[in-house]
Amino acid sequence: MFHEGCHPHPLLLVEDKSDQVREAYCSGCRELIQDLSYRCANCKFFLHKTCAELPRELDHPFHPQHPLVLYDKPRYDSVGVLFKCNSCRKQKGEGFVYHCSACEFDLDIQCALLPKLITGNFPKLQHFSHQDSLLFIEKHYIEGADQSCSACEDPISGPIYCCFDCEFYLHKKCTELPLVINHPSHRKHSLTLKPTPPSSHSKHSLSLQANYPHEKGCSCHLCSKLPKGFVYYCSPCEFSIRIKYTFSHLFEAKTHEHPFTLLPRPMSFICDACGTCGEYCMPYICTIRNLVVHKDCISLPQTIKLRKHEHSIFHIYFLKENEVRKRICRICRKEVNVEYGSYHCLDCDDYFVHVNCARDKTLWDDEILETEELNQKSSETLGEGEIKHFSHDHKLLLSDEIENCEYYCDGCRRSISTAFYHCAECNYFLHKCCAELPRKKKHWNVKKTRTLNFEPIFWCYFCGFYCSGFCYVNNDDRLPSICFRCFEIPDYFTAHGHEHPLFFDHKFTRECSICNEKYGRFRCEDNCEFVLCRRCIALPETAWYKHNGYKHDEHPLALTYDDDVHDLYQRFCDICEESRDPQKWFYYCATCDFSCHPLCALGNYPNVKLGSAAQLAIHEHPLTFMKDNLGYHKCSKCGKSCKDAFYKCVESECKYVVHHLC
After folding, report:
1. Cys-Cys with 631: which of 63, 149, 356, 641 at CB 3.0–4.6 Å?
2. Which residues form the Phorbol-ester/DAG-type domain (predicted)?
3. Can 3-52 and 250-298 be said to share one CATH topology?
4. What are 516-568's pLDDT values in tens digits?
């Protein structure tokens, strides 16, 4: 069996489903374990029985040139770039893969097993648009991939013809298009089907290419866009139409009660559905309501649910108001002209979104959760003032004795300043509000609902710090965790140290004004040059400078935004003794006249609880997180002195020590 060489420990077949581990994922196909599986008793390694019994070599119809060899991990090219599956084009960093080294051809497990899902004998087609024969697939396994039809540019679905070596896909219906048609928008000549848009020197195409110099070719006369797929083309007139618009002269709109009719004359107009200008293209009109719209806008959804808003938003063509006031789009923070189409929340009078902003499907909330799921609590009440929380083994007792309390909440890692729960048996504390957090929650920038979890040590991909305590995870997409503090940051807020509100622009990136990080996406609403990255937003208002876990200064350091105190010769960091930029944020103690860079004050692990124990795959026993700047401990892996964070085995007889980076 293949599994005998892909894992160093013996695997045991689990035949009783009651013995299956909850939320376990197969290391071969990365799918949830629900059937018979092999399990490693020493580490978290699982395999479906079917994945463990896969053949080492496979003759596959998607790549008939050479047999594919099964590998226990994805392959990388010569410069270290991870290959994509040649079928679904998804890039996976985990799981088994069938690979041909001669052709650099890869298939993940799901796509490699595709023939079991297909009926037929793989008939082939020689199409005029492609030099190689196309393989017919009646039912494919590419759902959710970013592949589109090379003819109509729509996502591939249903029966398709494809060439995996060239990444060429055609809907079956697109291979049956007539080669010559007559169209009402161009009565002078017939239109011929072309596999690629011809280059054009017409006035229409040249004016469009002047605005988009990177685009070349003949633009569509219905939408004024430069097509990437097939077109119907008239050579004498340099007239072209995209495939997706060829057979739609009359269209029933989702957002309108009357049908729209194509006006076969190119013109410039302002679209009543989205409020943007249509330049020299053919509009669709409604004569009953006197509306003129783009072709793309007649299929706008009536309602959209955004992740960043609790209610659905509805499309409106215009809004009559007696009150004159400014309407701001909640995505781009620019003004919305309500005399034209926009999306509006009926429950929130001032919530508007531009149509073109709302079109971005990456912002949509497609996941529907029941009320019971969203209201699932993270703790169970045992009695008055007593709870059992999922993050701790012992019961927790309620207390409001916050005076002189120097403890930190183990959930959010902030100091205790309000009512809290504590454990009578060990040193564990939770804010009352943290103990009452819902177990499931949605985030404005994450597609799937996340579950509240407790981890001794984890890396937050939002702020980039290592943390302890509460984090939000999603086992389905296996993305990195988000710490509790970052999860609570809104997409629109007024930041300390800047006079204008900031908002998250998912299409914008520029250097952070504070730390020069390249990926600053929180920009100023007032269009000034101020930009913040996620790490700088997560900086705490106050911090203690700690050395080996002990406070180095008796006063807390305050995050300071404007250096108008020190003269030019005193702008140095008192920790690293390097110069400070007076325009950058820094931490400062006015009593001691102590100033330092943010990262010098916080270090690399400001949110990690020293002494946290975690079970890591590199060692058989739990390891404790510690810090040592003096180098008294040597790493068991690299042999060098540990002068930063390291892990030490909790077993006193075991002398295992390892660097955090090792």
Report:
1. 641
2. 8-59
3. yes
4. 887 888 999 887 889 998 888 888 888 877 665 555 667 888 898 877 655 65
DSSP class per residue in 591-634: TTTEEE-HHHHH-S-TBPPTT-EE--TT-SS-EEEEE-SS--SB
CATH, domain 250-298, list 3.40.109, 2.40.160, 3.40.1350, 3.30.60: 3.30.60
The token duo for 610 is: 């020293």
Asked if residue 286 lies in contact with residue 260, where contact means CB atoms within 8 angstroms, the answer is yes
Running DSSP on this structure, what letter comes out for residue 329? Answer: B
pLDDT digits (tens, 9 = 90+) for 223-264: 777 788 899 998 888 888 888 777 655 556 666 777 888 887
Which tens digits make up the pLDDT trace of 603-651? 878 888 888 777 777 788 888 888 766 667 788 777 777 777 788 888 8
Please give the backbone phi and psi of residue 215, each rounded to the nearest 5 degrees, phi first. Answer: -95, 135
DSSP secondary structure, 417-467, as one string = -S-EEEESSSS-EEEHHHHT-BSEE--TT-SS-EEEEEEEEEE-TTT--EE
**Alpha-carbon distance 297 to 299, whole Å?**
5
Residue 297 CB contacts under 8 Å (≥ 6 apart), including other chains: 271, 273, 274, 341, 355
CATH 3.30.60 corresponds to the domain 3-52: yes
Question: Percent of the chain beyond pLDDT 70?
Answer: 82
For residue 202, count CB atoms less than 10 angstroms from its CB and return exposed for 0-12, middle for 13-18, buried for 19 or more: middle
Tokens 């009352």 found at = 432
Q: What is the dihedral of CA 632, 636, 641, 647, to 10 degrees?
A: -70
Please count the CA atoms within 13 angstroms of the CA of 233 that sit on its side-chain side: 19
Residue from 630, 95, 622, 82 nearest 647 by CA: 622
Helix (H) or strand (E) holding 60: strand 57-60
Number of Cβ atoms within 10 Å of the Cβ of 526: 12
Quote the tokens at residue 345: 């929340």
Spans of all domains in the chain: 3-52, 180-245, 250-298, 542-602, 610-662
What is the rounded CA–CA span in Å between residue 193 and residue 179?
5
Task: State the burial class of residue 59 (Cβ atoms within 10 Å of its Cβ: 0-12, 13-18, 19+).
Answer: exposed
Q: How far apart are CA 107 and CA 62, in angstroms?
A: 9
- What is the pLDDT, as a whole number, of residue 201? 44
Q: Please give the average per-residue pLDDT across 432-443, as a whole number.
A: 88
